[in-house]
Amino acid sequence: MDKLTEEAKELFRQPWHAWVATVRPDGSLQSTVVWVDVEGDDVVFNTAVGRAKERHLRANPQVSVSVLDPKDPFHLVSVSGTAELELEGADEVIDRLANKYLGVETYPYRQPGEQRITVRVTPQRVIHNSGG
């Protein structure tokens, strides 16, 4: 199992969009852009219950999360691992991400009846390039 270095964690701490790849039921990949952060040695992102990412991860928890430094296309980190889905604390996580990415205190795009869920990825494989 690989670990994130402090330099790799710093990429995830930046307000740069990441992309997540999940596995669809037919085995093909779905990729989507997400807000992301690190908690300890884990990478976290947030979605809503019922969305494709959440459905795919319940069926197959394999996931990849990557971020690219917008100033240096060779400075990147990509983490692959197994997702853990967490309902508890998910509203606080999306609010924290909204603050990081939008500078607001609460997530402004909540839909009526929406239940948020946090996806926690413990790295099993890390690819980190320090840049060019």
Automatic annotation (TrEMBL):
One of its GO terms (molecular function) is oxidoreductase activity, acting on the CH-CH group of donors. The keyword Disulfide bond does not apply. SUPFAM superfamilies: FMN-binding split barrel. Keywords: Oxidoreductase. Residues 4-127 form the Pyridoxamine 5'-phosphate oxidase N-terminal domain. One of its GO terms (cellular component) is cytosol. It comes from the Bacteria. This is Pyridoxamine 5'-phosphate oxidase N-terminal domain-containing protein.
